Fold this sequence. Notes:
Mean pLDDT: 78
Order of helices and strands: HHHHHHHHH
Largest sheet: none
Helix content: over 70%
Low-confidence stretches: none
Shape: flat
Number of domains: 3
Oligomer: single chain
Structural class: mainly alpha
Distance between the termini: 66 Å
Strand content: under 5%
Amino acid sequence: MKERTPKLVRTYYGWIFGAFTLVVGALFLWKVLSLYITGTAPDYEGASPFTRERVVEALSRISLAFWLWIAAIIAGFVLWEVFPVKQKQRKIPDDLQYARLAKRLPDSAPQGLEQDFALVERGRKLIFALKVAAWSLFGIAAIYGIVYLAIPGNFPNKDVTAEMLNMAKHVFPCIFAGLVVIAGAAAYEKYAVKSMLPSVKKLTFGLKPNKRRKTAAEVVISDPRFLMGLRIALAVIAVALIIWGALNGNARAIMIKAINICTECIGLG
Length: 269
């Protein structure tokens, strides 16, 4: 019974605090909506209802509930110290076990474990193929979008919103397909890892993490000179695009849009 008492206290506190949080949130939304409805009513003739004084006056009516909510949070910290619960050792998830053991997988099938090795290799190749397919779809969508934006003829009526929606009709199917493939790859990987884990444990039993030889692509990508060259190339492309945008008038158009947003939407100026 003594072991169950801290758990029961924490459980009851969680229920009460969750319900009280919903009440405080509902009170806050009620006051905000009342201010908004008052200010937008057709027959409202008073001063602006969104002044600091009116907002403070409205929220002060629920200040007691708010401070009680803060006190409940502090009480929760106290309860967690007064009623400690012994944490059980958590089981390592299958995907984490697989990630750790995958570093020890041998390059060839050990004697007597050919079927296990074939099962693991088949699952790994399928997972990799699904991820490549997903990112390829995203790449196609990105390239199509960049090409579409680079062609001035795609914006004949100067209605940017309509033309962007038209572009989205062509780009979105690739993005949606990529999301579907990624979701399928994640679901299959979770299922495959669970089924492959016994075979992986057999293949890696007694083995230390092996140093896998890097492929030619991995050697090039990890080369500091390649990374430095890539950064310089991206910097040059970024500067060139900025200069191009400034020369063709897009910088001024963006500045005007920013000014309009600040003065008309946000209310500055």
